[in-house]
Amino acid sequence: MRYSLVELAPVTPGGTKREALERALAAAEEAEQLGYHRCWFAEHHHVTGYAAQDPAPLIAAAAQRTARIRLGSGAVLLNHHSPFTVAERFLMLESLAPGRIDLGLGRATATPLIDLALQRDRTSRPADDFADQVQEIIGYLHTAFDRAHPFAAIDLTPGVDGTPEVWVLGGSGSSAGLAARLGIGYTFGGHIRPELASRALRHYRDRFTGTTFGAGAPQAMLALNIVAADDETSAHRLTWPARALRAGGRDRPIPTLRQAEAELSAAAKAQPSTIAGGVIPAQISGTPATLRAQLEPVIRAAGATEVMIQDMLTDPEARTRSRQIIAETLRSIAI
User: Fold this and answer.
1) Which CATH number is 32's domain given?
2) What's the structural domain count of the chain?
3) Residue 265 covered by a domain
4) Alpha-carbon span 9 to 253, nearest angstrom
5) Do the strands 76-77 and 38-41 form a parallel or antiparallel pair, or are they unpaired?
6) Where is the Luciferase-like domain (predicted)?
7) What pLDDT score does 249 carry?
8) Average pLDDT for residues 146-161, to the nearest whole number?
9) 227 in a structural domain
10) 95 lies in a domain?
11) What does the alpha-carbon distance between residue 189 and residue 194 come to, in Å, rounded to a whole number?
């Protein structure tokens, strides 16, 4: 099956954003070598621990350093952007790397102050118009506005041979119906709400209608936080930085394994990191011998056609080995 990566560009203690961004670009090159289908870059605003504030520059830079892997956003947060600007920007990226660009669309809030700073119009109350924004972007990308639509005369596509692949990202299942109705890909953040993963992806698949805006068949992606190592103890320990980040607050660099070990309580360290009885933990760990047995039943139950990996690893050797094991495991699963 297909396996992909979302890269957050984690900043290490004492490190710089430049170093984090360089590691993120190197991760795209490495992912291509390991057979990953996509590498997406995140959008996080005013967060000390992540250097990826805007996916577009990272996509453009990674496109110059890779040849096959698809590159995209995981996700552009539409509540902070104009649909016109997003469509124009990603059509430009499509021109830079034809046939390799994904436009992942989502929504998220930061603190009230940052949300206000990101607004262009600060006199009106924010509106939940995500569905309208997604449909407007598809209208621009596919020149698909109804004749009566006020933007029907706008055509952003001249000179662009292809179209970015559009995905809706969600963490609660509420966007599954939207993606299904539009016939585009859907990614569920199983690392956010793992207990809802199967229900959300099944909802998407059951209601999917093929359109010219997508592949014509459901593309159901399950995003999970997975780490791996050659022994179970080491693999489990690799979940600790993500746990420490949640427990100690996100406004700081990503904790090292040594920091996480010092910060976490014994109970926090011992929390399960393996899938048991269909229950998916927030962080999954495994070895070459155990990871497939954990993941395959979950993938089949959810009807996922692709798995997207997230991790909080900053140690280069541990990160490379983890992603290599995960790639080998997922490659061996036939769906």
Assistant:
1) 3.20.20.30
2) 1
3) no
4) 11
5) unpaired
6) 9-305
7) 75
8) 96
9) no
10) yes
11) 7
